[in-house]
Each structure stands twice: as structure tokens, then as C-alpha cells.
Amino acid sequence: MRPLLPRPWLVAAAAAAATFAAMTAPAGAQPYPSRPIRIVVPYPAGGGIDVLSRQIAQRLAQRWNQPAVVENKPGAGTLLAAETVARAAPDGHTLMITTDSTITINPHLYAKLPYDPVRDFAPVTQLVFLNQLLVANAGLPAANLRELIAHAKANPGKLNYASYGVGSQPHLAMEILKSQAGIDIAHVPYKGIPQAVPAAIAGEVQLTFSGAASTQAHIRAGRLKAIAIGGTKRLPLMPEVPTFAESGFPDVPANAWFGLFAPAATPREVLAALHAEVTRLLREPEFAQKEIAGKGYELVAGTPEEFAAFLVADSARNARAVKISGARAE
To answer: Model-level pTM?
Structure first.
């Protein structure tokens, strides 16, 4: 029987274990960091991943007494940013904070990539996990998923939803919901959450998916309605919002993660320094409460070994989601 995953993913998990075990090796003569750090983010400024990346960059700069700058490089389904980091010098001064789109969705979406998600990157740590909300324009006559499906069936082809690109998490989630519920809702891709959420508020689209960090204030103000959320349990910040599982659709993949990566061949002592410093600041009580739990994220901050093993499972899950959705990208 053919394995579910390409062998490199399995090799990567084993390699990560060996790398992490060796991370106590003494650093070389060259201190790290020795010059400004660039953190490339494949999404526009203003979204949840951008905000968290800037918080991390600010604290790294303070701790290491070196500038740490976030460079937003959106477009082409995160391919532009990923290729930039894959080709950067493997010295820890160019990093990437990205989502599952880059690493575990794109390989199943594109026939050819300008980077290899396994061979070109060293996973440092999975930062956070988040379950995404399906939100609706305030004027849409539906307060829950049952009512939304009924309205969509009564108005086939008249509703639309925003995502941040073909194969993005919102696109896969909605296409699977459409398939399972038997409804017709048109897809309108935007560059990112900072464009998709305002489009839903303005009524350019009726629906979109987003994390609590980007939508909570709009929901409280009545500019958006929360229809359902991913995951197996309700979000503590919004206990009134039911999950897709509660609503009868447990297979809708309404979730995402943010992770930190370095170029492959980055020295293990540099990876060790990055991992130690980033996970330490993520776990600081004030940061964890305000920037993680307070934004609706679930703190992970695990080891490179744990992250690599997670990527194996996540790739398999997204392979199935892409197949079910029928999504393809050129």
C-alpha cells in the first residue's frame, strides 16, 4: 500500500529529533545575532499573524540588542515569501513566520513549487494554534449555521465569501462545508484577512473566515455575526458561538497555526538560541495572557521535534482537505 505521506516528511521528523537533542552544543566564535534580523511574513500588515510577528520581533530586539524587522511579503499564495527565505543565507538572520498554507497545504495544491517545504526550511517552533470563526455580514438573515445553510439553499449562487487565496484555510473550510451541506456560495479571493474582514463588514461579500483577533471587536460592535467556530470546544472568549462539530459538520477544517522557520542548514546552535528565546517570551505570563489567550490563540511553543512531527500529520490532513475541496492552483 502506498504511504499517506512522502518519505521526506517522515525523515524530517526523525531529523528534528536528532537536531534538537544536539542543540546543547556550544556556540561558535561568531555571536548570534550579529546583525539585524529580518522576519518575513507572507501576509499583509494588520492581520493576526502580522501583529503577533511584530510583538515577537519587538521583544527579540530588546533582548538581543539588535533590530528585528518584520517584512510583509504577501502574494502568490505565500510562494513569494517562502522562496525568499528558502534562498536566504542559513545564518538565522532571515526567518519566516507563516501558516499551514506555506508548508502543509501548498504541496498538495500546486503541481510545482519554487521551494521544497521539507528540505528548504528548519522548523523552529509552532507558535500558536487557532480555530477560525465563520463570520457573516450583519445584514445576512442567518444567526447560526442551520439558518445560513437554509438561506443559501433558498438563494443558490447569490451569496459569496472571502478568503485570502485559492487553497487558503478559509477556502478549504468553506468548500468542504459547501460540499457537505449541498449549498452554492461563490468564492472571492482577497490578499489577506485585513482585506477580507472589511469586505464582509461592508457587504462586498456576505461571509468570511477569520480568527478572533481580527473579528472579535467587530462582532461585539454588531458589524459582524459569528456563525460557527472550528475545533472541538467553544472559544473561551466567545462561549456563545457553537462549533462546527456541534452544528453537525465536524469535518470542516476551520483552523490554522502560526510557526517559526529558518532556512535549512542554519547552524544548530542558532536554532537552539532562537527556540529558547522565542518560546521563553511566548510563555511569559503577561505576553501569554495578553497576546495569546487574549487574542483567542492556543499557545503551543513546542520543540522542533514536536513541530516536525505535527507537520507530518497536518500535511496528511490537508492533503485530504485539498482533495475534497477540489482546489487547484497554477
So the answer is: 0.86
